[in-house]
Structure formats: C-alpha cells, structure tokens
Amino acid sequence: MMEEQQHIIQELGVARTFDVSVEIEKRLEFLSGYLRSSGSRTLVLGISGGVDSLTAGLLAQRAVRALRGKGYDAYFIAVRLPYGEQADEYDAQKCLSLIAPDRTVTIDVKPASDAMMDAVKSEAKDIVSGTRHHFHLGNIKARQRMIAQYVIAGASRGLVIGTDHAAEALMGFYTKFGDGAADILPLAGLNKRRVRSIACDLGAPDELVFKIPTADLETDAPLKPDEDVYGVTYDQIDDFLEGKEITPLALQKIIAAYRTSGHKRALPVAPCPAD
Questions:
Q1: How far is it, in rounded angstroms, from Cα 208 to Cα 95?
Q2: Is there a contact between 157 and 44 (Cβ–Cβ < 8 Å)?
Q3: Which of 43, 44, 159, 200 has the most crowded Cβ, counting Cβ within 10 A?
Q4: For 159, phi and psi rounded to 5 degrees?
Q5: What gap in Å lies between CA 64 and CA 29, rounded to an integer?
Q6: Are 113 and 61 in contact (CB under 8 A)?
Q7: Domains of the chain listed by start with CATH number
Q8: What does the pLDDT average to over 16-43?
Q9: b/e code 251-269 from CB counts within 10 Å (16+ = b)
Q10: What is residue 46's three-state secondary structure?
Q11: Which active-site residues does the annotation give?
C-alpha cells in the first residue's frame, strides 16, 4: 500500500477490520448519545431512494426508539425532497416503508430551485448558462434540500443527518453546503461496501441495497450513475479504502479526485492571526 493511500485511509477514518454487528451498535450509540447530549430531541434526514439515506434512516429510527424506551423524548422525521416528479420515486417510497419514520414530510424543491436559477440568470446568464447549466442547477437543488431540512430541524429542536461516507468523501462527490452540510454523520468512515453490509443486516432488500448509485442532480441526465462521473467503480474505491491494490489508472483517478476536492472536506480557511 502506497504511503499516500495509507494517509488518506487514516484521514477518512476507515477501520482496517469490519464487523457489521459491532458497527451497527457503535453507530446507534453514536446517534442516540449525541442527540441526548446536545439537548436535541429530533433527527431529520432527507430520503432519496438510495442505499445511503436508507441505511442512515434505518439507524436513525432505531436510535430514537431506543431513546424512547429509556424515557427520553426522541423523534425521527424523514423528509422527501423531490425536484418535481422524481424518476425513482417508487424506490424512495419503498425506503420509507422499510424505515417507518415517526413522521414523513414531502417538500418539492423545484419552485425554489428554479426561482433561484432564474434570479441568478437575470444578472449572470453568461456565467451559468452553457454546457454546465444543469450541473449548476443540480447544486442549487442540493442546497435547497438542505435549507428545507434545517428549517424543520430548527423548528423541532432537531439535528440534520448527513449521509456522507468515506467513499463519497474520498471522491468529493457531494455539493458543498448542500448534501455535504449536516450536523451528524452516522455513516462516516464506511466505504460503500460496508454501508451496503449494514443495510443488509438491518433487513433492507437487495433491490435497494445494490441499486445503481446516482446523485440524480442533473435534469438533462436523470439517474446518471455515480461511477460514470467518477471514471472508476465503487469496487475500486472500496478496495482503495481497504488498503488493497488497484489498477494504476484507477489509483491515479482516485488520488486526483481526493486532492482536488480537499476544500470540500475543510472548514472555511482564514488568515493566521497576527503575532
């Protein structure tokens, strides 16, 4: 294993070994313990229809049930945040049925997202138009979704759950201050393979666990697979994070993605204080 690979694995908190039962228990304790210690009472999570939000949702609902069993008033709100009509809405509804949240709220982010893009284009059409238009609109969607979740969390003494894990963190595959913004990350340090293992152990069916992952942000390319964007597969990403050897080309692409996305994993930079 190359030195930089080892450094990245350590930075992203990926454990050398994985025991699914131990990990589930640890992450349930993390969610319930932090909710209680922070004085909060609600966990809020956007449900997309993918395995990441499904897994985080299953953990969240179990965590609040455990807290209620100990006499602590805890509550889980799942939020559907489609942009108009979502192509895989059926999968999202199946995820909600499995999670069985205390409450489900549905908010269409299309009106707000389109209004923001129209407002930007009225003054800066030359900047945001062109071949990257749908990419920029996709980032607006992600940020509008997080705005909605924080409105709900702020009004319910809540914490917003993020679904970021080590594979996405490695590739920088999230919108800064969009789906990358959250209060608590129960999947941190897991690669995709391990997220799927937890989902399976929690009772999720294969059709959802092994569904082709997609951010589904670009309107002109609905359900575009993550791997098409990466140029590498999740198996290669997961092998990298487990310290295994991968092909030189895949290694080059992964290292390059990690280096260029460093700003997403950092707090806002500031000048050093004067002596």
A1: 8
A2: no
A3: 43
A4: -120, 140
A5: 10
A6: no
A7: 3-263 (3.40.50.620)
A8: 97
A9: bebbbebbeebeebbeeee
A10: strand
A11: 52, 168
Structure tokens belonging to residue 55: 């897994």
> Rounded to the nearest 10 degrees, how much is the dihedral formed by the CA atoms of 24, 30, 33, 37?
-170
The whole-model pTM stands at: 0.94
Distance CA 171, CA 32 (A): 29
Q: Which residue from 89, 93, 33 is spatially nearest to 59, judged by alpha carbons?
A: 33
pLDDT in tens, 116-134: 999 999 999 999 988 888 9
Comparing CA positions, the residue from 75, 99, 240 lying closest to residue 158 is 75
* AA letter at 65: R
3-state SS class at 200: helix
Q: Once rounded to an integer, what is the mean pLDDT over residues 244-249? A: 96
Residues 9, 254: Cα–Cα separation, whole Å = 12
Q: How far apart are CA 83 and CA 109, in angstroms?
A: 5
Handedness of CA 222, 226, 231, 234 (dihedral sign): negative
Q: For the sheet containing 103-106, what is the strand order?
A: 103-106, 75-80, 42-46, 158-160
Residue 87, CB-side half-sphere exposure with 13 Å CA sphere: 12
